[in-house]
Structures are given as structure tokens and as C-alpha cells.
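Sharing a chain and its predicted structure for anyone who wants a worked example. Both blocks are below, sequence first, C-alpha cells second.
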Amino acid sequence: MTQRRYDLTTPRRRAAARRCHGATATPIWSAMDTTTPETGTLTVPGAVLHYEVRGSGPLLLLMGGGNSDAAVFEGLAAHFAVDHRVLTFDPRGNSRSPLAGPPVDQRIEDHAEDAARLLDRVAVPDEPVQVFGSCSGGLIALQLALGLAVRRPERIAALVVHEPPAFALLPDAVERLAFLDAVHATYRREGIPAAMELFSAVFGGRPAPVLPEANDNTDFFLAHVMRPFTRFLPDFAALAPLAGRIVVAGGEDSRTHDVHRPAVALAERLDKELVMFPGGHVGYAKWPDEFGVLLRTVLAESAPARVVEGAG
């Protein structure tokens, strides 16, 4: 597997960093009101979605992990909001996006349709969108791209998929999925702490990262998200028209962890280099500026020139 590591010390990328961070160590967004979002709700079949929009410029959709909500992207969204319109949201069933009925096992297809409906709410007609999805958000991003590839392929300007938990892609998928079944059984039998202790194996034996969040969604994640999402396999043939706009990414600090392995498998399946980002599985939350500078470069290199230059 070929891995790509960007040198952020080149003149062009130093200039990008200065534009994002300012001439001093203080980021531009720290002195601007890019951290206060406009909020809204959108009623969709089976749920009411909470969403947030910051900034102005080309549209960027950020989607996080299975138990995360919009709060996990506060730093990265603020970083991009100086020159992008950034859309984040709480996935259905998490935090401020309640389900319309009793909790049920979640489907990637429903979450992708939620994202498509949010784009229709926020975007102008046929406006291209750049997408970053990490962990489960990466799987949702792939399914979103599949839907748009059929209906409006030009809507996806660039798509970065960061360490998606597509364990079904692995050569030892049966064993990996059986392990996640064991985590679920432990949750049912012994509760959240015991299940999360077992689950820590996917992070190299360390506890799952503590992240910003509006509410703790671990219960819902273990009960209804973890198992169905990790079994999801995208339709690779249908993704072919968008292959040139898809980037598969991993974390430098998580490259020896099980959670990193599906990114390697996905990159191989798509015949892509794996782009290495700062930090680990949640580097975007812990190092939003460093992560954001590289994400800008990757998005710009993946998007058609007319989208990068003409969007606004």
C-alpha cells in the first residue's frame, strides 16, 4: 500500500498555512466570529435533524463518527469558516437529532439520505459540495456520493474519507465482525464501561478518544450503530464515475491500530494512495488547524478547477 505524506513546509503550503493561521501563531478565526453557527432543524422521515452552518464561500460538509455530533467539529469548522460555508449536523438518534419513534438499528442509506436532504436545504440549486467524513461519517459520505453519482454527480466536488470502519472489507472480516458482536454482547450483558473497555482494542488497547459532544451517545452507538455500520460495503462499481474526486485518508498516530486497517483496504480497493493526516483517528478534533491545512490542500487537489475557483 502506497502512503502519501504531504510536506507542509513548501512555500505554497506555508502560504496556505499563513492564510489559515495568520502571520503569528494565533489563528485568524480566533479573532473572528466564525465559531458561532446559525442553527436549524430539518424534519426527515423518522427523525428531526439538528444542523449548523458557519461562514461563507464554497460549501463544505463535515460528518463525524457514529457516536459524535456537530460539536466534534467546532475547531475544524471554525478553521474553514473564514472562507467556506461549513455544514455540520447531529446524526439521527444522536444528541439534538431525536428519532421519531423508538430506537432501531441504523442504516447507512438513511443517514446518507439525511445528508442529501440537508444539502438540499442549505445549498443553492446544483451547488457543488466538498465532503469530509471520518469514521462512520466516511461510510455515510461514500453512500451519499453513490446517491449523487446516479442523480447529480457534479454535486460532489471532492470527497475525503478518513478511517472509515469498513471492517467487512478486511481479509479477516469474519473475525473482526465477530469481535464487534462480542462488544455488543458485552454491552447487553455488562453495560457500557465493560463494552468500551473491550472496544478499546480497535484503538491499540487505549480507551476510545474523549471528544467534544453535546450529549453522550455511547449507549445508542453500542446498541444500534456499531454493528450495522461496520458491516456496510459500498458499491464500488457505482463509485467509479467519482473515483478521481475521492481521497482515502488515515491518521499518522493510528496507523498501527485496527481502526486504521479498513482505510488501507479501501484505498487498495479504489487503487488510491492513502493520504496520512496529523494525529490519530480523531486528529481533526485534537489538531484542527494542522489537520485543516492539509485538508485544504487535499480538497483543492481533488476538486475540478472550476469548482475551486468558481464556487462562492
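Comments welcome. The CA atoms of residues 66 and 141 lie 13 Å apart.
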